[in-house]
Amino acid sequence: MSAAKPAADVALRRAYDAPGADDGHRVLVDRFWPRGRSREVLQLDEWARELAPSAALIRWFGHAPERWAEFRTRYLDELAAPEPRERLHALLAAAGPRRLTLVYGAKSDTQNQAVVLREALLAAARRNRRTA
């Protein structure tokens, strides 16, 4: 893969886990900074706060498992707007050929915004490859 093509390797890592040697481009994807974590400890390349779910959606979801499916749908709708779509492509371009690691603070590994954001990023990367 050339440096000009977006990364298709998108990983997830909790903010409370140690950074991995193979994390590549590390991006915090929470709207709020993870409690008790410093910039030095997180070793971030950027903070994509604007790609996090809206504050209203975060409050509504409240990490309630029974709301997960609806949260996913609503968040994908938010990410489909023009500005977030452009930001998704910019994030993929910033990672280049490296792995893109989405860093999140939620306790659940399977029901959090990073899972949905990864889905949106992979879909954007597939669209980019089809149009390239």
Please provide a written account of the structure:
With 132 residues, this protein is α/β, with parallel strands linked by helices. It has one domain (10-131). It is 42% helix and 12% strand. It has a 4-stranded parallel β-sheet. Strand 2 (25-28), helix 1 and strand 3 form a beta-alpha-beta unit. Helix 3 crosses helix 5. The chain starts with 9 loop residues before the first strand and ends with a helix. This is DUF488 domain-containing protein. InterPro entries: YeaO-like (IPR052552).
Question: How is this fold's topology laid out?
Answer:
Layout: E1 10-14, E2 25-28, H1 39-42, E3 46-47, H2 55-61, H3 68-79, H4 82-95, E4 100-104, H5 113-131
Parallel strand pairs: 1-4, 2-3, 2-4
Helix pairs in contact: 3-5, 4-5
Pfam family, one: DUF488-N3i
Protein name: DUF488 domain-containing protein
Organism: Dokdonella ginsengisoli
